Amino acid sequence: INKLKSEFLRRASHELKTPLISIKGFSDLILSLYANQLDSVITSKVREISDGCERLQNIINTLIETSRLESPELKPKVKKEDLSFLIKFCVHELESLAETRKQSIKLDIADELFTNIEKEEIHDVLSNLLTNAIKYTPPTGKIEIKTELREDFVVVSINDNGIGFTEEQKTKIFQKFGKIERYGQGLDLGIDGTGLGLYISKKIVESHGGKIWMESEGKSRGSTFYFTLPTV
Ligand SMILES: Nc1ncnc2c1ncn2[C@@H]1O[C@H](COP(=O)(O)OP(=O)(O)OP(=O)(O)O)[C@@H](O)[C@H]1O
Ligand SMILES: [Mg+2]
């Protein structure tokens, strides 16, 4: 029963996440594009929608996390899926968020990439890495997603020209609650996180038999996150 319960919790949380990203994305888009044409009463209501979404996102992340901790033996339910399609889907979902920050997302990926994955989980990884790239890159920044095919695995990379990492910061980001305070660095980050995204992403990638890592040449010099997945 316990296993069923956490399985249900996990799936329900995943299902809740996707529409929430759209609601938040579009309410933020309204705020940034039409704020000066709208009544201040309306904008304050839209801001409440956006803040509410943010709180829900945090709760959902905690739910996913708890369900994983409850049963660490839970293996992903993999199926043959086109990773290329999933990447495009994810980019489409987050386009409005990038648009609010006037950022561009460039894709340089293969047309078809067949991998054995649990789609919802890898969606979470992509969505977290991409949301991070958007959040931690100043407006008008550039984000690029690439795939590279090796012998029996594919490497996905998400590069941004944002705030990057110092050597010290690099050591803690994949840890639980590895949140690094970014305030006071001149970034207008409207989105606050819990510091679980990369920790969860690492668990997911590793449970699929892949690896995840990050490279950055230093503060304000951007970052690239990489992960691998076995191909079929
Ligand atoms: N692309 C990036 N550029 C610069 N810093 C980043 C990038 N991605 C993550 N970080 C830093 O690493 C920390 C950990 O990231 P993580 O995704 O785990 O947490 P979060 O984004 O703060 O919260 P959550 O994902 O749980 O909403 C972040 O707080 C942020 O400071
Ligand atoms: Mg994150």
UniProtKB/TrEMBL annotation:
Its EC number is 2.7.13.3. Residues 11-232 form the Histidine kinase domain. Keywords: ATP-binding, Kinase, Nucleotide-binding, Phosphoprotein, Transferase, Two-component regulatory system. The keyword Nucleotide-binding applies. PROSITE patterns: HIS_KIN (PS50109). Pfam families: HATPase_c, HisKA. GO terms for molecular function: ATP binding; phosphorelay response regulator activity; phosphorelay sensor kinase activity; protein kinase activator activity. GO terms for biological process: osmosensory signaling via phosphorelay pathway. SUPFAM superfamilies: ATPase domain of HSP90 chaperone/DNA topoisomerase II/histidine kinase, Homodimeric domain of signal transducing histidine kinase. InterPro entries: BphY/WalK/GraS-like, HATPase_C_sf, HATPase_dom, His_kinase_dom, HisK_dim/P_dom, HisK_dim/P_sf, Sig_transdc_His_kin-like_C. It catalyses: ATP + protein L-histidine = ADP + protein N-phospho-L-histidine. It is an enzyme of class 2 (transferase). This is histidine kinase.
